[in-house]
Specification:
The protein has 168 residues and is an alpha+beta fold. It has helices at 13-18, 52-63, 154-167; strands at 6-11, 28-31, 39-49, 67-70, 73-76, 93-104, 127-141, 149-150.
Amino acid sequence: VKRIPALTLWRPWTACFTDLPEPIAKRHENRGWATNYRGDVYLHAGQRWDPSALQVVAEVEWMHGGCLPVGTATVCVDREPTLSPNPADHPTGIVAIAELVGVCSLTVDLDSRSSCDCGQWAFPGQYHWRFANVRKLPQAVPCRGAQQLWYPPDGVAAQVEQQLAVAR
Ligand SMILES: [Zn+2]
């Protein structure tokens, strides 16, 4: 089994990569640290639920003619909300594979007031890990998450690769 590292994200940030339509899909992951690794990475959906992701989804959709929270309501234009706000609808475990193609450090130093063209999903003060070629697995493969880049157990990796082989 080929060794591919995994990156754990809180839910539903993973769904922002896998379940949003292409023009608004998340392709930049914000991290306080950089890596020299390039290539395929398993995207792992952790147990933790971060509702602030839904706020960013709403803002990105609004910029593209979607929905925006106004007070306690959500005002929508032309589009239904695309991500379920219910954690039970978002499986944990390895949910996708994606290619890490670059890491942008242009805005890490906030004092420099530099900007970059990574888009709305990239937050100032963070390294922006740029992903391409996101492939969602038909079924999430459950396993524990970890910090940094980590390697899932061989059995888990084999289950992921089996799904990818069927998809090819
Ligand atoms: Zn950037």
